[in-house]
Amino acid sequence: MNHSLMEEIVKYSKKTKTTDKKQRVLQAAAQLFAEKGYANTSTSEIAKKADVAEGTIFRHFQTKEKLLRSILLPFLKESLPPLSEDVFSEMLASYGDSPESFFRALIKNRYEFFKESKEYFQILVKEFVYTEPFQQEVKVLFEQNVLKRINDAIKRFQEKGEITQSIPSEILTRTAFTIIFGFFFTHMFLQNNEDTPIDNEIEQVVQIIINGMK
Amino acid sequence: MNHSLMEEIVKYSKKTKTTDKKQRVLQAAAQLFAEKGYANTSTSEIAKKADVAEGTIFRHFQTKEKLLRSILLPFLKESLPPLSEDVFSEMLASYGDSPESFFRALIKNRYEFFKESKEYFQILVKEFVYTEPFQQEVKVLFEQNVLKRINDAIKRFQEKGEITQSIPSEILTRTAFTIIFGFFFTHMFLQNNEDTPIDNEIEQVVQIIINGMK
Amino acid sequence: MNHSLMEEIVKYSKKTKTTDKKQRVLQAAAQLFAEKGYANTSTSEIAKKADVAEGTIFRHFQTKEKLLRSILLPFLKESLPPLSEDVFSEMLASYGDSPESFFRALIKNRYEFFKESKEYFQILVKEFVYTEPFQQEVKVLFEQNVLKRINDAIKRFQEKGEITQSIPSEILTRTAFTIIFGFFFTHMFLQNNEDTPIDNEIEQVVQIIINGMK
Amino acid sequence: MNHSLMEEIVKYSKKTKTTDKKQRVLQAAAQLFAEKGYANTSTSEIAKKADVAEGTIFRHFQTKEKLLRSILLPFLKESLPPLSEDVFSEMLASYGDSPESFFRALIKNRYEFFKESKEYFQILVKEFVYTEPFQQEVKVLFEQNVLKRINDAIKRFQEKGEITQSIPSEILTRTAFTIIFGFFFTHMFLQNNEDTPIDNEIEQVVQIIINGMK
DNA sequence: TATGAATGAGGCTTCATTCAT
DNA sequence: TATGAATGAAGCCTCATTCAT
């Protein structure tokens, strides 16, 4: 039930049969990019952290930018969709089928995911802002996978009369998504690393969403 | 009523009586940092855009990083608080005193602000993530000003019985803030530049928050 | 009467008001390029020889290739034509006006020029082979200046009946040019640096050309 | 009668019984060196073009420079001398025994050879200029083979009274050689790839040489 | 014999910063 | 105050060469 990005990436990379050293470079780069940003991380630093010669990085990835993409794209393109599928069915199975339990499960589950892969999301968000084409790719991925599934669930709840039908499901979806992911982003940026118990807060957000949609 | 960051910065910089050239450097740097990020902007580019010798930048700001701070901190430290004060009193005056109108006004007003100063927020968000001490400063600023005022308003609404008293105002505030700013961040990152009319969405978020808090 | 390429370049560079350091870079680079070839000379070597920081090279020339062009093109474009003019009039004035004396003077004069600027011609010839567009530029320059003037002289000698009129002047010119410059090239490549007295040989070539053209 | 360098190299390499892969490396390298120069061709490029692993190159040739020598030296050392022998006897046999026909045949024959092996000569000329010891080797080879045979022919014509005896044969030889090879070099560098008919020009050069030597 | 991953020295270039004018 | 030439550290990347398989 705990689908960390790290695990996903490891899975992915095993599929494509990467060398040990290639793996180490990917891990080191991911960590450093998340910590200090792409532009502030030098290839020599990556090499040192991966305990590899600098040339090795370029033998495997040709370019620093391709290294970045090798960290993000495979994850997004191949791991996100199936992951979401899993998550959604698991969620519905174990948490019951009311809107409350759906959103509570969604938020809790994704929040765990988020927290564990904070680094990778940081890379995503940061490098994201500048590169137009990449932005589009990611956006489409999110919409076609995550948004679509939330929308499906909301439509089902609307049919069962558990959520208001006076507002189109698309708008409800977009709003819910914005609130939930906004909640995560805000936490990603504003939260100290102090382990603040935020269960209260999550419950609060769930209540607000549910009430707002009834 | 239209408080763009740009205007705020201009106001601020006039106060400190900067030279023409210093001004031009600030403007050019702000634009470039927003567009391409701090790390991807060179001082020579800034000099060219400001039509100033490169040395001039360093005469005024000593360091590229101090230049960044000269763009962000003055705005945050001296412009945000009074701005918020204005905004809040204006808001309450012109929009009536129900929770609905308060949040609606808050979101609409801040959204305009956001949209117009998107660039400056981009600088803020991007460079933000990395520099620990800076993060703290900004966080405190936000909490002490914006959060505090929202909290004051909520407490007042609680006293009037228009918002539930069974949840501490601090939690309600934090949740509302998270939802609202999360909403903005999400739009900042995920929205195409197409001018999508989002009035629906704003209204939606207002309703959800209100319902959730009643 | 002694027109070394080196002197020409110095003249040229004074016109364009170059810094001392820029000058030193040009000189060092010219020497090294001639000695070891463009591809085998590193910018750090140039910097060391010019006693300049490596960055200085790029401040002035942006690119290693632009540095190469800054050595060759100015010389070719601005120094060659007037130079040739001088040379030709001087030659005709001081050597008398028979075909023999003309060719003898031409070869001797140009051979001196060649010997002293051997380095620069080496750069020219070597880098020449690869870069198509550059090749064209140089070729046109040579044809429009040197060839044209030889052709003028030959036509005059034909009119005076001192050279056969049964062959078009263009063919005679091309042949003479090919022989003369071929003679130089061959010496450039095949000659040891031992100072072989080649006056005999020059006289030989003059005789052969003259006899062949009578 | 048509002795292209390519054919010669193929012959040579067959003699020394090289592996298929070694062969392929030699061919690929020769092509690339001619096209882009030694310094601008990477061993990985050669490996790719030869469809061989990069390590294979070094197994066979140890060093990139030894690879270059493996292309040029065998040709020069073992193919040039017998080739010249053939050429000269063929020439004298089929073109008759006057100085005119000798030089005409020599130039035409060698010009064809030149044209077809332009690439290989480009390698020779280019890499040549820099490496002192190599230069000597090649120079000696040329002198001991080509020059010697021309000298022999000239001496014979002098004995028959068909060429002036007032000039030592060595000087005549050197001059003729310089003119002929200079003619080729000049064409190699200055000629566009347009197929200019140069028969006129060749005839012209022959006449000039002959007249000059009578 | 053949491979190709790994290496690390060295290449070109950028850039924040200094300083003499 | 303003300039811009000069600096040199550091960045990304290429490449000949080695070596375990």
From TrEMBL, chains A, B, C, D:
Residues 19-79 form the HTH tetR-type domain. GO terms for molecular function: DNA binding. Keywords: DNA-binding. Residues 42-61 bind DNA. SUPFAM superfamilies: Homeodomain-like, Tetracyclin repressor-like, C-terminal domain. Pfam families: TetR_N. It comes from the Bacteria. InterPro entries: DNA-bd_HTH_TetR-type_CS, Homeodomain-like_sf, HTH-type_TetR-like_transc_reg, HTH_TetR, Tet_transcr_reg_TetR-rel_C_sf. GO terms for biological process: regulation of DNA-templated transcription. PANTHER family: HTH-TYPE TRANSCRIPTIONAL REGULATOR RUTR, REGULATORY PROTEIN. This is TetR/AcrR family transcriptional regulator. It comes from Fervidibacillus halotolerans.
